[in-house]
Specification:
Layout: E1 17-21, H1 24-27, H2 40-46, H3 63-77, E2 81-85, H4 88-91, H5 101-117, E3 120-126, H6 132-136, H7 144-160, E4 166-171, H8 173-182, H9 197-216, E5 221-228, E6 231-233, H10 238-260, H11 277-283, E7 290-294, E8 298-302, E9 310-311, E10 314-315, E11 322-325, H12 341-355, E12 362-366, H13 377-395, E13 400-406, E14 425-427, E15 434-436, H14 438-450
Parallel strand pairs: 1-2, 1-13, 2-3, 3-4, 4-5, 5-7, 6-8, 7-12, 12-13
Antiparallel strand pairs: 8-11, 9-10, 14-15
Helix pairs in contact: 3-5, 7-9, 8-9, 9-11, 12-13
Bound molecules: ligand GBH.
Ligand GBH binds near residues 23, 171, 337 and 422.
Length: about 450
């Protein structure tokens, strides 16, 4: 296969952690097998009109049955680590109470297979698939859900903790808050606008309680995977800069400040579900590393009804005090997201400036793109560009310890259904056949060259 890299990648440190990521709901399928309970996303996909192609994830990549083949692909790729997520409702079908042994057994087999293949398991304990029973009781709008999460984490850590050295508590609480509860584009489809802020707090509390449980068990090193990207003002005007700053607060500081500084950014207090001082002590317990999922920058201006109220298919309600503009001047992926490796450098240098000593070592827990085709030269250029930007950030003094590509294989891309393909491995969703793409071969060769 042809290599799309203009020249070899710069050298990364010998102990740099190379990996790929997936999530349970997007790949496992086997939705009603072996006692799995339903999740918020099963229910959301069953509502007419929610998923673009009308699909659901009840089969997805059938990873639940085909995991040995997928582990073999990881081994051949030569990655040191695999980030996957554990489905809460597979382990606890009602979200709390009775443990489903068969569900837990699946993760036990997967972890064993990974260890045998020499690939370190990095489980994410929650990647958006809230157990339906808890969702129906109010889900993340309820503080109680955070406590149920801690009990679930205890169950998983008890079973897998002897072989798992690295844990991720949550994936992107920002997106569940924003897309799931403020704008209603993701499960559970609520459109609460700023009344969604308690969802952010309860997830951060869940994170804090989970860290406490894992620390009590002495179970490995702990991080979180937060979604971040720079916000660019639409112009130099005071109004545009103010709007961009507010958007940056919602996407970035609302989630990073409580974790890293132990406080919420100014302007949030009135939206929180009550006094949070004690919670913040839990939320800001030291982390071993900080996971960043980076996709792209966002250009934001003051609210302007003449700017399309629609970005990435998401309509921004008129009540929002900002408008999202198109980021012009860059190549775009099949998802129409701009390809801006330089914004990864900007993001990481900005984090180092804002959080200084409080910023633990960083791991890029997701980065990747949607393109069609098996000869995916554009994905190779994307990964190559972002890895060079990451190396530049390290040269600027940002302590980066690892990089995970999203995703190992094409999968069920949430509200987009099967239409967006993020994989290094192509999946034919009729036959479920896996075919490594050109980018898979490129990454395998690039990793060999690093050794
Ligand atoms: C991640 O979320 C998820 O963790 C993962 O499950 C998912 O499959 C993957 O990314 C790919 O989507 O209109 O250009 O401003 C990504 C969060 C939120 C990033 C929306 C891009 C806005 C696009 N995304 N964001 S843009």
């Amino acid at each position: 296969l042809p290599s799309g890299s203009p020249s070899p990648l710069p050298r990364f440190p010998a102990n740099f952690l190379w990996g790929v990521s997936t999530s349970a709901h997007q790949i496992e399928g086997a939705a009603s097998e072996d006692g799995r309970g339903l999740s918020s996303w099963d229910a959301f996909a069953a509502e007419p009109g929610r998923i673009k192609d009308g699909s659901n994830a009840s089969v997805a990549c059938d990873h639940y049955h085909r995991y040995p083949e997928d582990v073999a692909l990881l081994k051949d790729l030569g990655v040191g680590a695999y980030r996957f997520s554990v489905s809460w409702s597979r382990v606890l079908p009602e979200g709390a109470g009775a443990v489903n042994k068969a569900g837990l057994d699946f993760y036990d087999r997967l972890v064993d297979a990974l260890c045998e293949a020499g690939v370190r398991p990095v489980p994410t304990l929650f990647h958006w698939d809230t157990p339906l029973a808890l969702e129906q009781a109010g889900g993340w709008l309820e503080r109680d859900t955070a406590h149920r999460f801690a009990e679930y984490v205890d169950v998983v850590a008890t079973r897998l903790g002897d072989r798992v050295g690295r844990w991720i508590t949550l994936n992107e609480p920002a997106e569940i808050t924003l897309l799931g509860h403020a704008l209603g584009e993701h499960a559970p489809g609520k459109r609460l606008l700023f009344d969604a802020v308690p969802v952010a707090h309860h997830q951060l509390l869940a994170h804090g309680l989970a860290v406490q449980v894992l620390r009590e068990r002495g179970s490995g090193s702990i991080g979180i995977a937060n979604s971040h990207g720079p916000t660019w003002a639409a112009s130099d005007s005071e109004e545009d800069r103010g709007a961009a700053d507010f958007y940056d607060l919602l996407l970035n500081r609302l989630f990073a400040d409580p974790l890293l500084l132990g406080k919420y950014p100014d302007g949030i207090a009135e939206m929180l579900p009550g006094p949070v001082e004690d919670d913040l002590r839990l939320i800001s317990q030291p982390l071993d590393w900080y996971g960043v999922n980076y996709y792209q920058p966002t250009r934001v201006g003051a609210h302007d009804p003449s700017v399309s109220a629609d970005f990435a298919g998401i309509s921004i309600p008129a009540e929002m005090p900002f408008s999202v503009h198109r980021v012009e001047g860059f190549e775009r992926t099949a998802f129409d997201w701009p390809v801006v490796p330089g914004a990864l450098l900007e993001l990481l240098v900005g984090f180092k400036e804002r959080y200084g000593e409080k910023l633990p070592p960083v791991v890029i827990t997701e980065n990747g793109c949607s393109y069609e085709g098996i000869d995916d030269q554009a994905r190779i250029r994307y990964l190559d560009g972002h890895l060079r930007a990451l190396h530049d950030a390290m040269d600027e003094g940002v302590d980066v310890r690892g990089y995970f590509v999203w995703s190992l294989m094409d999968n069920w891309e949430w509200a987009e259904g099967y239409a967006q393909r993020f994989g290094l491995v192509h999946v034919d969703f009729d036959t479920l056949k896996r075919t490594p793409k050109a980018s898979y071969a490129w990454l395998r060769d690039a990793l060999r060259a690093q050794r």
